[in-house]
Amino acid sequence: MERQSHSGFTLVELLIVLAVAAILFGVAIPSFTGLIEHERSEASLNDLRTGLHQAREYAIRNGMQVTACRSTDGSACLAGERWSEGWIVFEDPANRRDCNAETDGRCDHGGRVLSISPGLDTGAYITTNQFVSDTVRFSPLGDARASNGTFTACNAEGEVLRGMVLAFSGRMRVARDGENNAC
């Protein structure tokens, strides 16, 4: 009589594999949450960069002042350094640096709202230095009407994740170490 060989695994082997997998997941999950938070902060800084780039392009293409400012309601500018609460971009022909948009999307000085960005829904935030704390204005030539300003993405613990420098020329670049603001 021939013996049949059975292949498979025992319950003990299965439990050992599950225990090792649980330990690996337990070690890996905290690293992934930090990575996810970092990527969300990067995405928000990239959204801001895109918004400022579009504002600059619009100013050059249409030959007019365009302003970007912090805003939580999508209609009026706010003072302060935390752009993570949202921002608006609007035509600023009267160079007033404020919009006070009505429900029709037109500013009280005649310009119109070009884009509205909602705030971040994470604990991360974007802070600035004094040169771009409230507003960023682009002239019809595309320059940023202020000296170099820095936007810094920070995590909920107040650690610097990445920065972006807005040059007087209106161009943006990634900040090097030492150029970032404190969170």
TrEMBL record:
It comes from the Bacteria. InterPro entries: N_methyl_site, Pilin-like, T2SS_GspH. It is a single-pass membrane protein. It holds the Pfam family N_methyl. Keywords: Cell inner membrane, Cell membrane, Membrane, Methylation, Transmembrane, Transmembrane helix. Gene3D superfamilies: minor pseudopilin epsh domain. GO terms for cellular component: plasma membrane; type II protein secretion system complex. It is found in: Cell inner membrane. Residues 46-169 form the General secretion pathway GspH domain. The chain crosses the membrane at residues 12-36. One of its GO terms (biological process) is protein secretion by the type II secretion system. Belongs to the GSP H family. This is Type II secretion system protein H. It comes from Aquisalimonas asiatica.
